[in-house]
Design brief:
The complex is a heterodimer of chains A (110) and B (140). By secondary structure, chain A is an alpha/beta fold. Chain A has one domain: 3-Layer(aba) Sandwich (Udp-n-acetylmuramoylalanyl-d-glutamate--2,6- Diaminopimelate Ligase, Chain: A, domain 1), CATH 3.40.1390. Chain A has five helices and seven strands; from the N terminus they run βαβββαβαβαβα. In chain A, the strands form two sheets. Chain A has a five-stranded mixed beta sheet. Chain A has a two-stranded antiparallel sheet with strand order 1-3. Chain A starts with a strand and ends with a helix. Chain B has one domain: Histidine kinase-like ATPase, C-terminal domain (Heat Shock Protein 90). Chain B has a five-stranded antiparallel beta sheet with strand order 1-2-3-5-4, with helices on one face. In chain B, helix 2 runs antiparallel to helix 5. The longest helix of chain B is centred in the N-terminal third of the chain and has 22 residues. Chain B is globular, with a radius of gyration of 14 Å. The chains are: A alpha/beta (110), B alpha+beta (140). The interface between A and B is medium-sized, with 21 and 25 residues.
Chain lengths: 110, 140
């Protein structure tokens, strides 16, 4: 079993928001930036790897019930997205790793 | 048991608030105690429809009806209507403008996702008058 906190450590990442839910279990992964693709394909409990960092990203994470968002490539989390993620307790991990690298590391942990 | 009715107004062209109604309904269904997969289906379908209203129709109104057996949602807008519903139902077909695409929308998966996650879906549309999308998800 791997938690959001463990994934953050393995990615050399930091919590940009939603650290309150860091103990949630991760059961899979999904990578993508088009929100409807994510809603159509990501599964509950996935870690979602993306570079999309606006407030709609947080809404999709909540509605699709993913375990966390991994914001890759050092993408900055927009301020209103940070606020929303905190309110809704969606963990957002920021990492400098490219999406592919982050996915490889996640895959090794699952 | 009588059906519980809910109503939401969706403001147009405000992408920071798009999804609020879906989020509210999601929390409400959770409180009532529906199964997580039922809640997830309703939430995703409604968010897609809500986003469509904001992108294409300057917002609209949503009415929900909740019974222990199923959750039904009707979304009404007074937008331009859909010229070709079959085409709009195809995965990848989108008429979303560029500013919306840069936010991560416009993948052409909205209506297909609604169909994918619901047990029943209907679209009534009149050009120049508006569109009504109805869907329901069985809870049992």
């Amino acid at each position: 079993m791997i938690t959001v906190e463990q994934l953050a450590r393995e990615l050399g990442g930091e919590f940009l928001a939603g650290e309150a839910a860091k103990d949630r279990e991760i059961t899979g992964g999904y990578a993508g930036d088009l929100l409807s693709w994510v809603m159509g394909r990501a599964k509950e409990g996935d870690a979602w790897l993306t570079v999309m960092s606006n407030v709609n990203t947080i809404a999709v994470a909540v509605l699709a019930d993913v375990a966390c968002i991994v914001l890759c490539e050092g993408a900055a989390l927009e301020p209103d997205a940070r606020t929303r993620a905190g309110e809704q307790e969606v963990p957002v991990i920021g990492t400098a790793l490219p999406v592919y690298e982050a996915a490889v590391r996640l895959g090794a942990l699952l | 048991m009588e059906a519980i009715k809910v109503h939401y107004d969706v403001p147009g062209d405000d992408f920071t608030r798009a999804g609020e109604a879906s989020g509210m309904l999601k929390r409400y269904l959770k409180k009532i105690g529906f199964a997580p997969d039922v809640i997830r289906k309703v939430s995703i379908a409604m968010y897609e429809a809500e986003i469509n209203m904001v992108i294409h129709a300057h917002g609209g109104e949503i009415d929900g009806e909740i019974t222990p057996e199923k959750i039904s949602v009707t979304l009404r807008d007074q937008g331009p209507g859909i010229p070709d519903v079959d085409l709009a139902m195809q995965e990848g077909y989108s008429t979303a403008p560029d500013n919306v695409r840069s936010l991560g929308f416009g993948a052409g998966m909205g209506l297909p996702n609604i169909k994918k996650y619901t047990d029943e879906m209907k679209i009534e549309t009149v050009l120049g008058k508006g569109t009504t999308v109805y869907f329901s998800v069985n809870a049992q």
